[in-house]
Amino acid sequence: MKKFKLTLGWQIFAGLILGIILGLIFYKNATAITAMQSIGTMFIRLIQMIVVPIVVSCLTVGIANIGDIHKLGRIGGKTILYFEIMTTIAIILGLVVGNVFHPGDFINVHSLHATDITQYMATAKSANHTGIWGTLIGLIPVNVFNSISNGDMMPIIVFSVFFGLGTAAIGEKGKVIVDFLQAVSQVMFKITGWIMKLSPIGVCALIGVTLAELGVSALAPLSYFVLLTYLTMAIFVMVVMGLAARLFGFKITTLLHVIRDEAVLAFSTASSEAALPRNIDKMTKFGVSSSIVSFVIPTGYTFNLDGSAIYQSLAALFLAQAYGVHLSIGQQLTLLVALMITSKGMAGVPGASFVVLLATVSTVGIPVSGLTFIAGIDRFIDMARTAVNVIGNSLATVIIGKSEKEFDHDKEAKYLKSLNIDK
């Protein structure tokens, strides 16, 4: 008799359901909230503990294997261009949906409960003064160990790229570095497997504390906006990403089957970091060259935020409509450009999507105070946009791999067969 075993995805889903139940049972219970918050924080910290070593080791080895700086430049340029196109489409889709369905018309802002957003204000203020040059300067680490300790992903990526190129440049002498870092990455993936066994518990705690603090009542007045945001993101995944996948000869549904555990984990924890280690491992098993995977996924973690882009544009229009502020085509184009620029400067900042909104809505005359009314539901929307971000980065990895002819179709077929997935 075959032993029944729940897959990780179903375990995480069970943790999600249990977390919802616990959140409703322990609503406003300070002791339970503290316990669940502590357990959830420990789980996220375990994930954060392994992210940087995985990124540094995998990316350095991947760049060293590429070796050719011209090839790296081509891959990098192609990746950034793809990210920019998809992010722009996401912002435009959010604006279109907002203009068609007018979610803000059904809200009386004076009846909503305001939430404190002072923790985001300083970051948003600095974002407005940083500009494009400040963003570019910030990519270069003065002290890479300081960047590692702070978890600043882009400076870490820049250092790893140079370190990988330098390793390739010294030829045979660099082999010892490559071998060492390959061993490091294998150790980190082994630890990832151990940590993932705790993910149902972490998910349960994180969902539980969210509902215990806010309650279902926080969703009620803004339920239309939340539902519209979720539907818009679903359309983006199935239609826009689906078309992009078709252009490169595969189905988005196949990819969704492959990364379903990671998407559920990202959704449940509202953390891209939680899915990043396994995502790197899975995309390599799926057939994409490890050098492509190790470059595209960490870069996409900070630059390819499709879910966040949809939320930011839709939320900006929602607030404008709620306050009766009419935005002309010109103002919406200004908003589009502002979101494109500011979102890149906010990569890796805690609560980045919310900070981007703070930094941009005032440029088109939307009261910043309006953000206090949607701050309470930001966690619920953050879950969806994080899942979309993870799916988008997985899609980008496959597309860049196929465009560079660094996709192993035999490896893909074997991996899909092992997962019982039809191509």
UniProtKB/TrEMBL annotation:
GO molecular function: symporter activity
InterPro entries linked: Na-dicarboxylate_symporter (IPR001991), Na-dicarboxylate_symporter_CS (IPR018107), Na:dicarbo_symporter_sf (IPR036458)
Predominant location: membrane
Domain of life: Bacteria
SUPFAM superfamilies in UniProt: Proton glutamate symport protein (SSF118215)
Spans through the membrane: 7-27, 47-67, 79-101, 153-171, 191-212, 224-245, 286-303, 323-342, 354-377
A Pfam match: SDF
UniProt keyword Repeat, yes or no: no
GO cellular component: plasma membrane
GO biological process: dicarboxylic acid transport
Record-linked PROSITE patterns: NA_DICARBOXYL_SYMP_2
Keywords: Cell membrane, Membrane, Symport, Transmembrane, Transmembrane helix, Transport
Membrane topology according to the record: Multi-pass membrane protein
Keyword Transcription regulation in annotation: no
Localization terms from the record: Cell membrane
Protein name: Glutamate/aspartate:proton symporter GltP
Originating organism: Apilactobacillus bombintestini
